[in-house]
From TrEMBL:
One Pfam family cited in the UniProt record for this chain: Lactamase_B
Keyword check for Hydrolase: yes
Entry's transmembrane regions: none
Top-level taxon of origin: Bacteria
Organism: Paenibacillus graminis
Sorted UniProt keywords: Hydrolase, Metal-binding, Zinc
Annotated ranges, domain Metallo-beta-lactamase: 36-270
Protein name, as recorded: Metal-dependent hydrolase, beta-lactamase superfamily II
Similarity remark: Belongs to the metallo-beta-lactamase superfamily.
Presence of the UniProt keyword Nuclease in the record: no
InterPro entries xref list: MBL_superfamily_lactonases, Metallo-B-lactamas, RibonucZ/Hydroxyglut_hydro
Cofactor(s) the protein requires to work: Zn(2+)
Catalytic activity: 3',5'-cyclic CMP + H2O = CMP + H(+); 3',5'-cyclic UMP + H2O = UMP + H(+)
Length: 284
């Protein structure tokens, strides 16, 4: 195991958006394809259920009802049905919103934080520069950054535990292109690494559970085909990236991980293939 404390892992999704595949994968089709808004439920033996992102919720449509935010839903059409949100899926499995004590946020794009307000007692774990990159932006710049501030609760800062302030570091095994990771809970169960480029301060998460090692790599790639076939996104995708050079660097790191650790389950947040292979279809 990569981590020293195993957790139970459920790979889930809450809604999806439509994009031409060509933008996310060199040589892809120009036709719009569905990209699920993935998230993960991690059941920790001591800390209980923990969320890695949330996917969409109906609040996304409330926050994009008026200009300029309404441009978001026109540029990136979103499909979401009642009953698909993280909070509703958890309730069906007998997990009350108040039971979520920790929530790991890979970054602050709307498709990753859509359900954050549904969990009133959660403390938020993220890399500080990820939030600093968006929270002071005006409406137009926030829209371009994919950030809808109304998706976050008013007491967000008070409930925050930035990893670079609260989490110790732990060395990773040889063969990884990262020498160390943030040990989010101090017990070796959740190991986070910075994978900036798509968004400033974006983090990926190593977890072990269900007999497998996982890397929840957020939006380092949009599909497993990208790292498996070494196919970067279309250059136009760079318009929504925080840093193209960092993106290329972390894309290459993901390729190294894929080649050096073939049994590791790499889970991009928007990959239909990964969701079909390892998604649970429901909370476990």
């Amino acid at each position: 195991m990569i981590t020293s404390t195993p957790v139970s892992v459920s790979i889930l999704s809450a809604g999806y958006c439509l994009h031409p595949e060509l933008l996310t994968l060199k040589g892809g089709t120009i036709k719009p394809v569905a990209f699920p808004a993935g998230y993960a439920l991690l059941r920790h033996p001591q800390h209980g259920p923990i969320l890695f992102d949330t996917g969409y919720s109906s609040r996304f449509f409330e926050e994009t009802a008026k200009l300029p935010a309404s441009l978001y839903r026109h540029i990136t059409p979103v499909v979401f049905k009642e009953g698909e949100s993280a909070v509703e899926r958890l309730r069906e499995a007998g997990i009350a919103p108040e039971e979520i004590r920790y929530m790991v946020l890979s970054h602050f794009h709307a498709d990753h934080i859509g359900g954050v307000r549904d969990f009133p007692r959660a403390q938020f774990i993220y890399l500080r520069k990820s939030y600093e990159a968006v929270y002071r932006l005006g409406p137009i710049k926030a829209l371009r950054a994919g950030f809808l501030p109304g998706l976050l609760p008013e007491d967000f800062t008070a409930r925050s535990l930035p990893v670079d302030e609260y989490s110790p570091k732990r060395p990773l095994p040889p063969g990884f292109p990262f020498t160390e990771a943030y040990d989010l809970l101090g017990d070796g169960s959740l190991l986070a690494v910075e994978m900036s480029g798509h968004a400033a301060g974006m983090i990926g998460l190593f977890v072990s559970g269900n007999g497998y090692d996982y890397l929840l790599c957020a939006d380092t790639v949009w599909s497993s085909r990208a790292f498996r076939e070494n196919r970067r996104p279309h250059p136009a995708a760079g318009l929504i990236m925080s840093d193209r050079k960092e993106y290329r660097h972390n894309f290459d790191r993901l390729r190294v991980i894929y080649e050096n650790f073939p049994d590791l389950r790499i889970v991009p947040s928007h990959c239909r293939e990964a969701l079909a292979l390892w998604g649970t279809g429901g909370v476990q």
